[in-house]
Specification:
- By secondary structure, the protein is mainly alpha-helical.
- It has a single domain, classed as N-utilizing Substance Protein B Homolog, Chain A, CATH 1.10.940.
- The radius of gyration is 17 Å and the shape is globular.
Length: 164
Amino acid sequence: MNAKPTTKNRKKPPAKAAVMRAATRLKTIQALYQMELGHEDAGEVLAQFAGQALANEPGQENIVSPDWPFFENLVLGIVEKQRILDPMINELLAQGWSLSRIDATVRAILRAGCFELSERKDVPAKVVINEYVEVAHSFFAGDESKMINGVLDKLARNLRPEEF
């Protein structure tokens, strides 16, 4: 017997803006990773990502486009504030660990999350944490997402105690 979904048990699709923001965060991590490993500057990477977005490849019509102003704000802001963000993150890592010892993708996720928590007060802290834990799940199947969750949660409670 097939039951029709009712409004109570039907999942509501995420709002387009939220999906775009999630895609933007993922692209931001990819850009930061590329900048670090390729030793490229933010301008070069932004130009490459903009070029990729303009290329209309067959079969990719349904791929969600990132929110470009948000993307640029994240990438440029993280680069600009990195000397402030890194010590904030280092303070919260387990004893004996530093950002330099962490995987480059984890490092990028922590920097992006830290930037949003410290600079993007328009985004609720719990949303920032959840979004970057979800990004971590895109790259890792292990404990990395738990570590990211713990660090960003502590950071959020330090930076935005009123939200908790």
